[in-house]
Amino acid sequence: MPREIDVSVVNLTKQFGSLTAVNNVSFDVPKGSFFSILGPSASGKTTVLRMIAGFEAPSSGDIFIGGKRMNDVPANKRPCNLVFQRLALFPMMNVIDNVTFGLRRRGGISKSDMVKMAQDVLDRVDLKGLNQRKISQLSGGQQQRVALARSLVLDPTVLLLDEPLSALDLKLRQDMKLELKRLQARMGTTFMYITHDQTIALAMSDTIAVINFGKLEQVASPDELYRRPATHFVASFVGENNQWNNGRVVKLVDDNTCQVDFGGLLSVARAGEKLAVGDNIDLFIRPEMILLQPGRKDSGIVGKIKEINFDGAHSLVVVDLVDSKVPLTINVKLQHTEQTPEVAVNDIVTLSWGQAAANAFHHVAPIADKKEA
Ligand SMILES: Nc1ncnc2c1ncn2[C@@H]1O[C@H](COP(=O)(O)OP(=O)(O)OP(=O)(O)O)[C@@H](O)[C@H]1O
Ligand SMILES: [Mg+2]
After folding, report:
1. How many angstroms separate the alpha carbon of residue 19 from the centre of ligand 1?
2. Which fold has domain 240-286+354-373?
3. For position 198, what pLDDT does the model report?
């Protein structure tokens, strides 16, 4: 059965003067899902969300919520709520008054019903017994939950969240990230979450839309984005990477696999797009998917350990490759298990990886180079 769609954006474009902040973006958000828009700063994320919420009119394209076209519906009549990065709570009001604020504005509900509804949502976000506390007397994480409760009490079709975790410190952000995901699953409300932080998007989302310079790069599950990035940008932006520029395709193994050459070193690679022999490519190699063996082996790439950064669960091992004609360095992320070899700086090691660890795309000049050209 096809899943019901809660939000649909079709060829959405926003022009600010000569700047195209959002460029012909289309996607569907399934009902009850956690959908993230991930992109670097100024890529157009907030602008997309503000158009869905009705605070910004599209230059062209359509927005549907719950199957209804929203373009001409004013913000306060749309079945969605926006939670801002700076929460925008009333600091001198207590928790219950903050949470019932939207209900009071909506009107037509008795005071006791409003309190009951607010209490119900506050319970669900694990904020009991704090009703009379002023916002200024709550921790950052508690304030976050009040902001969520204030929106959820209005029972929106979709909750729009504009980086609400970015104001928190790292530890709290980690905790809230899991809590937010659990809360969303429990409530079943559709969440649209925007962030520039891939660790947040990967951990929480059912689906992620990656956006860059206003353009949609890929819409996929976190797993799919990580394993099969569709573009050079997604490969460079999602997950950890070693990026080697300006290699050559020397052989096509099959539709998805090729062999690439960097200064005489050969690597197998997943062809992220259609490639031909002789093409100039960039290679993205996942540090955690590289096999490291002590000593020089018959097959694999030989290197000398330059640096080891130990962090308990892992070591990040920086290896200089000794057999290439161009200087090449690679980071290897070793997970510590009983089998993990003990290695030291200056040790000779052999590295190997499979097709799934290395994604090849046509070379893209870094932005600094483009400006010079
Ligand atoms: N009202 C506006 N007038 C003119 N330009 C704008 C306006 N709002 C946004 N922009 C520009 O549009 C582009 C996209 O902005 P947007 O706020 O959507 O980015 P973002 O992806 O949310 O970035 P961040 O991660 O930094 O919040 C930016 O270049 C921004 O300067
Ligand atoms: Mg923004």
Report:
1. 10
2. OB fold (Dihydrolipoamide Acetyltransferase, E2P) (2.40.50)
3. 92
